[in-house]
Amino acid sequence: MTDETKTDLYFMNEAIVLAKEAASLGEIPIGAIVIFKEHIVGKGYNRREIDFDPLAHAELLAIKQASQHLNSWRLLDCTLYVTVEPCPMCAGALVNARVKRLVFGCKDLKAGAVDSLFHICNDPRLNHRLAITAGVEEEACANLLKNFFKELRKPN
Amino acid sequence: MTDETKTDLYFMNEAIVLAKEAASLGEIPIGAIVIFKEHIVGKGYNRREIDFDPLAHAELLAIKQASQHLNSWRLLDCTLYVTVEPCPMCAGALVNARVKRLVFGCKDLKAGAVDSLFHICNDPRLNHRLAITAGVEEEACANLLKNFFKELRKPN
After folding, report:
1. ipTM reported for the complex surpasses 0.85
2. For residue B143, which of B52, B29, B5 has the smallest C-alpha distance?
3. Shortest CB distance from B60 goes to which of A55, A71, A73?
4. To the nearest whole number, what is the mean pLDDT of chain A?
5. Which of A7, A56, A117, B102 has CA 20 to 30 A from B39's CA?
């Protein structure tokens, strides 16, 4: 196992902890963190329902916190870890924030905008492209979602 | 001139006022408003530099304010007016927020995600699509940008 792989597993598990936090509040379990020089500078989990906020996706909250922490809208040397493939809004935010690298867990076949429906994070027409690693802790990230929706569908 | 055209011109000019506010602060002049039942429920102008925030685009600020005003992440019966074609992040946010209709001024050939590079706001694969009207006060909106960048490039 390379050092990068070990680091990716470590930080993805931090994002998974945040996803579980979302689930405990009745939110779809997605978590994200931003890393700068091996330190966490931004954290977020999905809070759409509790905040009445369509923008309160894990990635956007983590990006905002990182920008505030680093006093810059450019997150040039940062890596964002997120348990699920980002949607168009979040993929666009990663490009806008000039994030260097994206690591995600499982794909989102219905709205994923990195691999599944669009390729926003490495489109040569846009003014920034990210390095992308997919499938880190894929099964654990997918199971969080599966179990959440299974629980939701249970008759009371 | 139809009533809808008159209304669109009226509200686009409100968005233009906000874009000018951005310019006066040294920000790229883009303004946006959200309308619900003919009232403005959200306003925003680009504040990326002054807020150190890559998410501080006019559209996202207007959407957030509207969601808080209406106590819901679903902006089902709302129209968003913006002076420039939304980028991927903002186009994705419009879909996520279930905004009913988008009216924009001029195109953004470098990053537009409604008509120019992507078609995020009316993609049949996503779970929401918006009605779209383009080109309202197109020249005025484009001139704001042109003049801003011309001014920036002037030797001191």
Report:
1. yes
2. B29
3. A55
4. 97
5. A56
Which residue in B52, B64, B116, B129 has the most chain A C-beta atoms within 10 A of its own C-beta, making it the best mutation to test that interface? B52
Give B137-148 pLDDT, tens digit per residue. Answer: 999 999 999 999
Q: What is the pLDDT of residue B69?
A: 97
Q: Closest chain B residue to A68 measured between Cα atoms?
A: B52
pLDDT of A156 strictly over 80: no
Weakly modelled stretches of chain B, pLDDT under 70: 156
Is B71 in Cβ contact with A53 (below 8 Å)?
no
Residues in chain B within 8 Å Cβ distance of A88:
88-89, 91-92, 95, 113, 118, 120, 126
* B59 given a catalytic annotation: yes
Contact A52 B64 (CB under 8 A): no
B72 in helix, strand or coil? coil
Cβ-defined contacts of A105-110 (< 8 Å, 24+): A105/A12, A105/A15, A105/A16, A105/A135, A105/A136, A105/A137, A105/A138, A105/A140, A105/A141, A105/A142, A106/A135, A106/A138, A106/A139, A106/A141, A106/A142, A106/A145, A107/A134, A108/A84, A110/B125, A110/B127
Residues of B in contact with A89 (CB under 8 A): 88-93, 95-96
